[in-house]
Structure formats: C-alpha cells, structure tokens
Write a structure and sequence with these properties.
By secondary structure, the protein is an alpha/beta fold. It folds into two domains: 6-253, TIM Barrel (Alpha-Beta Barrel), CATH 3.20.20; 313-371, Arc Repressor Mutant, subunit A. The chain contains 15 helices and 15 strands. It has a nine-stranded mixed β-sheet, sandwiched between helices. Strands 10-11-12 form a three-stranded antiparallel β-sheet, with no helix packed on it. The radius of gyration is 21 Å and the shape is globular. The two termini are 29 Å apart.
C-alpha cells in the first residue's frame, strides 16, 4: 500500500434502536457488550493506518445510526482518526442521523468534533408512510432536528427521501417533495424502495400494496423535475444538490477515487485494490479481513465507466483514456450509443458520454449494454 495518499474515510456504525422493515444493511440492535467490543475493534482498525501517511479530505459516518453514538464513543473514534490520518482543514465530515435519536447535547458533540455536514433520514413527511417503513421517528421529530441544526449554524444539510413506499401515491410523494424543496436543504437524495431478501418486507412481498411500476416511474421523474426547477442539480441517479453542495465523499465512489472503509462490512478501494470487512459480527470482532484484490486494467476500465455513468457528467473520453489507456468509443459502442441516443437515453459528443434523466431511470439496462 502506498504512502502519502489522499483518500476518503467511511466509518460504519451498525447500531440501531430498531431495524426498518426494508433494511438489509449491516446493522442491529446492540447490547452494551457488543457496543464496547465494536468500538474497541473499530478504533484498533483505524489505528492500523497510522503509518500510511494518508490525507483525508472527506469522512463519512454511515450506518446503522451514527447518531446513536455517545459523546464518549464519538470522541474516541475521532481521536483515533485524527491521530492515525492527516485530516485536511477543509475536509467534508458527514454524519447520517435518524431524527428520533438526536438531541441538542448530541448535536453539540458532533459539532465539537468538527462535523460540518449532516444527512437526515426523513423518507416521507407522511406519518402513515413512516409507519409502513418501520421508522422510529415522526415528521415532527425531523422538523425539530432540522431547525435545531439551522439554529446551531449548520450550513450543509442533506435530506433522504424514498419513493415506492407501500400505499404511497404519486400525490403523497409530490407533497413530500414540495415541502422539502421549500425547506431548502443543500442536498436531497431520493431513493426508490428495493425489496431486499431477508428483510420483513421481503417475507411480506406478496401482500404489500406497492405503487405500480408506472407510478414509481412517475415519482422518479417528478422528483427530477420538481427539484431541478427549484435550483437543485440532478448530479447523480438518486442525488440532487445546490451548486457547490454535491456530496464530496460519494463523488469519490463515483469517480473511482481512493476511499478506506472501516467497521462491519465496510468496503475500500485503495492503491488500485478492493478489500472489505466481513458482515458477520463475530468475524469482524476477531479481526478477519478479505485479501486485497488488485484490479486488472480491464476491471478499472469497467468500474470507472460504470460508476461515472451514474453521474450527470458521465464519461469524459480524455479522462477515460488517461485512467485506463483505452479508447471508449469503439465501433461496437458507437452503434449502441446511436441506438440509445435516438431513444433519448444518452447524450454524446466528441468529448463525453452521459445518461439523460430518462437514461438514469433505465440505467441498469443501458450501462449493462454499453459495458
């Protein structure tokens, strides 16, 4: 592993008060013994990077529910980060928060540790839809947390929304969009519900009253049009930002830049290699880690193109050539590009290739065909 590198750091917090009905993330309701053992193992893993001389310009605490961390746990983890890495004074430091788990004292702890960006998991303004999802918070909880952050001077807030919720309508999703765009957070994510195997929703999938495929499609395009008209750039398939407030950490993923993941099930891409931690709690606590898998030139070409096509900027052909040594516009691809351009799914000139909004919605098909 090389030294003197610039990277982002992802810190996984697998603690929850209760699992949401759609969630298949590596998280659980912990007992005190696991919390203590996990925090100790996490700090140990962070300290294993002490001699790498890595400069962090983004840090992202995800979960699970990072806002369940106590001030002591948070301080211990941040102390390990600051002593094991070089932290840029301009670093973007994000924490995901559940509105049902954050109060003024805990927000103060995050702010005192240098956090300058918060991602609030709202999903919907409608109580019925929140209950269907198994969320532990109310809409009023969200408003209280949002206003508290603003009163404390937080100037970079992201709000997570979800569409395709059981019994959700295009109209109710439109009401959520309208309220949130008027609230004017700097960043909004809008994710379509996916029924994942092993979740309560999966076992109930035959009885769930889900929106139709056409309704879900309408919700996606409604999000794009409403938010774009309100000054948000649709800069990635599921993400919208005011100018200058794109999530710098997530942009590392979509540009195949270096990032290090620590904690349960965390993934890393560093120095041209992928590696990850186990999802099994006992394995993680015992120190097991996957072997580093060096990406081949073809792997890099595939992953870089696939990830860049998730963004509105798409693939810059000169940058692709610089990163991979290959030309993207092969004859075979030109025919496919012409096919999808004619159907309004792609934009392409001599400099770059990008998906349209319609192409974003059908990205799995288009990207699979192109790559």
């Amino acid at each position: 592993m090389r030294t003197d590198a610039r990277a982002g750091l992802y810190v996984h917090t697998p603690f929850c008060l209760r699992k949401c009905r759609y969630c298949d993330f590596a998280s659980s309701v912990p007992n005190e013994d696991f919390r203590a053992a996990y925090t100790e193992r996490l700090i140990s893993e962070i300290r294993s990077y002490t001699d790498k001389n890595v400069l962090l310009d983004t840090v992202f605490f995800g979960g699970g529910t990072p806002s369940l961390l106590s001030a002591g746990e948070l301080g211990g983890i941040m102390d390990a980060i600051s002593s094991s890495f070089r932290l840029s004074p301009l670093a973007e430091i994000t924490a995901e928060v559940n509105p049902g788990t954050l109060d003024g004292e805990k927000l103060g702890a995050f702010l005192s540790e240098g956090f300058n960006r918060f991602s609030i998991g709202l999903q919907s303004i409608h109580e019925k839809e929140l209950k269907k999802l198994g969320r532990i918070h109310t809409f009023e909880d969200f408003l209280e947390v949002y206003n508290m952050m603003r009163s404390r001077g937080v100037g970079n807030i992201s709000v997570d929304l979800m569409f395709g919720i059981p019994e959700q309508s295009v109209e109710s999703f439109g009401q959520t969009l309208s309220f949130i765009k008027d609230l004017a957070p700097e960043h909004i994510s809008a994710y379509g519900l996916i029924i994942e195997e092993g979740t309560p929703f999966y076992s109930e999938r035959d009885s769930l009253k889900l929106p139709s495929e056409e309704e879900e499609r309408e919700m996606y395009f409604l999000a794009s049009s409403v938010l774009s008209e309100s000054g948000y750039s649709h800069y990635e398939i599921s993400n919208f930002a005011k100018k200058g407030f794109e999530c710098r950490h997530n942009l590392k993923y979509w540009s195949l830049e270096d990032y290090i993941g620590v904690g349960l099930a965390a993934h890393s891409y560093f120095d041209g290699a992928h590696f990850s931690n186990p999802k099994d709690q006992a394995e993680y606590l015992s120190g097991v880690q996957d072997a580093h898998e060096k990406l081949s030139d073809n792997d890099v070409a595939f992953e870089y193109a696939m990830l860049r096509l998730r963004t509105s900027q798409g693939i810059c052909f000169d940058e692709y050539k610089k990163r991979t040594g290959l030309h993207f516009l092969t004859e075979e691809r030109r025919e496919l590009i012409d096919f999808y351009k004619a159907r309004g799914l792609l934009l392409c000139d001599e400099r770059r290739l990008a998906l349209t909004t319609e192409g974003f919605y059908l990205s799995n098909t288009v990207i699979s065909d192109l790559l």
